[in-house]
Specification:
About 45% of the residues lie in helices and about 20% in strands. The protein has helices spanning about 15-30, 45-55, 80-90, 95-110, 120-135; strands spanning about 1-5, 30-40, 60-65, 70-80. It has a four-stranded mixed β-sheet, sandwiched between helices. β3 (about 60-65) and β4 form a beta hairpin. It starts with a strand and ends in a 14-residue tail after the last helix.
């Protein structure tokens, strides 16, 4: 199992905790990672990726690229540290908690979960909350999150 973290910013990241979060989600969901690249970047890079690959010209917290289907996981995901910071303020959570949440969310996408409908978003949010609790990261209020 290969999990590579890449930080394109100058901000220090809790790499051990991030890898632990990735492994936890994979283990609990029955997944096996062949290769996962997690790229933590700034807002400009994320917006460019979102526009170039998805045709969306706006900021987002994560973009995932699954290269496999099912529980054998190969893929990459990008996380905008700028957007994580904004979300941490918006949802009154700490930066690290929000970073872990978005990382968990990204791995769930690699495993095939979607968040296109309110029901799907709710299901993913419940899983994120569960994994944050297991990691000891706590959970911020999810009332406002249910709207996004």
């Amino acid at each position: 199992m290969t999990i590579q973290l890449h930080n394109t910013t100058r901000r220090a990241l809790p790499e051990a905790k991030l890898k632990k979060a990735v492994r936890l989600v994979l283990s609990e969901e029955g997944g096996k990672a062949v290769s996962i690249d997690a790229i933590y970047c700034g807002g400009r890079m994320m917006r460019r990726i979102n526009r170039e690959f998805l045709g969306h010209d706006y900021d987002t917290d994560t973009v995932t690229f699954p290269y496999s289907e099912g529980l054998v996981v190969e893929g990459e995901f990008y996380v905008s540290l700028d957007e994580v910071g904004r979300n941490a303020v918006r949802f009154k959570s700490g930066f690290e908690q929000e970073l872990l949440r978005v990382t968990i969310h990204s791995v769930l996408h690699l495993l095939g979960y979607d968040d296109a409908s309110p029901e799907e978003r709710g299901r993913m949010r419940q899983k994120e909350d569960r994994y944050l609790r297991i990691l000891g990261a706590g959970v911020s209020s999810t009332e406002e999150r249910s709207q996004v």
